[in-house]
Design brief:
CATH superfamily of the largest domain: FAD/NAD(P)-binding domain
Strand content: 25-35%
CATH topology of the largest domain: FAD/NAD(P)-binding domain
Protein name: glycine oxidase
Largest sheet: 8 strands, mixed
Pathway: Cofactor biosynthesis; thiamine diphosphate biosynthesis
Radius of gyration: 21 Å
CATH class of the largest domain: Alpha Beta
Number of domains: 2
CATH architecture of the largest domain: 3-Layer(bba) Sandwich
Keywords: Oxidoreductase, Thiamine biosynthesis
Order of helices and strands: EHEHEHHEHEHEEHEEEEHEEEEHEEEH
Distance between the termini: 31 Å
Organism: Tumebacillus lacus
Helix content: 25-40%
EC number: 1.4.3.19
Number of helices: 10
Oligomer: single chain
Number of strands: 18
Length: 376
């Protein structure tokens, strides 16, 4: 019914870190924006994430994903200042860097190769032999094969970052509707003109799907084959009060991030479990063992809480960013997998540019929606 219909210039479906980053950038440009979220803001993978800005540590080879990550990471210092000025909330950007510890000789050789190409691409990557690592970290970390130090890979605290984005966008005019699940699309003459919800229709000139692991399911309603699927990640928090090191420590199957609130984040698993996001004892026990093996002092710290979320994986490991060809008014920003927080800054920026008809700061061709998509 007409009286149950809302109208907005831009509608973002999904209130995680990606949706909120896009909303913030659109709000800066003066665009009327509404964000709807079926639960609460950041309650899915954002809440469970580590907050690592691992533009180098997460990337195995040069290419579009690596370039996108480096470009996004560079935006965070200025973005932090903007958000503090608007909202008074600090994302808690921590900049000591990341030590990527080698677990065996094969891993050592791989990391040395990674140091080579990252240095050739203009990034800082410094190799530490065991004796150098012990001088820096003492006996805190179990070593044996050296470590690659990445001084420009940083971290933030996800809940603070999300709050800062949402509060800043709201101050600039963005509206939010939590506990508002999308139930379908509004279609007119081959274009998406809004969505349906249990509380009524929402009409919009532009609709953005930033719905993480659920994006593929929603796209199916439009007969779009969008290969985004859930990858369960489990982690946990420890109460440290005084973190043992300012550095993030990373190795195969485990990473340890000290947070400014006194806690330590330990992550994370990768599991194919459908849409079941409940923590599982076996996975947490395995992760705990790996963490204590890497950093023995963690064994005596009190357990704070388990975390679990569903990351949006994609068939080729790249996110989907851009307009859906053949359907007017519909945009997608999803499939960021483990790098949603890292890529949030550049995703918000380039999606706002695209939707405002501006020159793009990123070539979106490698991330085009239609690269893996067909309209049935």
């Amino acid at each position: 019914m007409l009286e149950n219909t809302r109208h907005t210039e831009t509608l973002i479906v999904g209130g995680g870190i990606i949706g909120c980053a896009i909303a913030y950038e659109l709000a800066k440009s003066g665009r009327q924006t509404l964000v709807i979220e079926k639960h609460t803001l950041g309650s899915q993978s954002t809440r469970a994430g580590a907050g690592m800005l691992g533009a180098q540590v997460e990337m195995h080879a040069p290419g579009p994903m690596y370039d996108l990550g480096v470009q996004s990471r560079a935006l965070f210092p200025a973005l932090r200042e903007e958000l503090i000025e608007l909202s008074g909330i600090d994302m808690e950007l921590q900049t000591p860097g990341i030590f990527r510890v080698a677990v065996d000789e094969s891993d050592r050789l791989d990391l040395l190769e990674r140091q080579r190409w990252q240095t050739e691409h203009g990034q800082r990557a410094i190799w530490f032999e065991d004796e150098d690592l012990r001088r820096e970290l003492g006996d805190l970390v179990s070593t044996g094969h050296g470590a690659l130090y990445l001084p420009d890979d940083h971290q933030v605290r996800n809940p603070q970052f999300l709050l800062a984005l949402a509060a800043s966008a709201k101050r600039l005019g963005t509206q939010y509707l939590e506990h508002t699940a999308m139930t379908g699309f509004l279609l007119e003459r081959g274009s998406v003109v809004g969505v349906k919800t249990l509380d009524g229709d929402i009409r919009a000139d532009q609709v953005v799907l930033a719905t993480g692991a659920w994006t593929g399911l929603l796209a199916n309603q439009l007969e779009l084959d969008l290969p985004i699927y859930p990858v369960k990640g489990q982690s946990f928090l420890l109460d440290a009060y005084g973190p043992p090191t300012p550095f993030t420590i990373y190795t195969h199957g485990c990473y340890i991030l000290p947070k400014r609130n006194g806690q330590i984040y330990v992550g994370a698993t990768e599991e194919q479990a459908g849409f079941d996001r409940r923590p599982v004892l076996r996975s947490l026990a395995s992760l705990s063992s790996r963490a204590v093996e890497l950093m023995p002092s963690l064994g005596g710290l009190p357990f704070a809480e388990p975390l679990a979320g569903l990351r949006p994986g994609s068939a080729d490991g790249l996110p989907f960013l851009g307009k859906v060809e053949g359907l007017g008014g519909l945009f997608v920003a999803s499939g960021h997998f483990r790098n949603g927080v890292l890529l949030s800054a550049i995703t918000g920026k380039v999606m706002a540019e695209l939707m405002n008809g501006q020159e793009l700061s990123v070539d979106l061709t490698p991330f085009a929606v239609e690269r893996k998509i067909r309209i049935s």
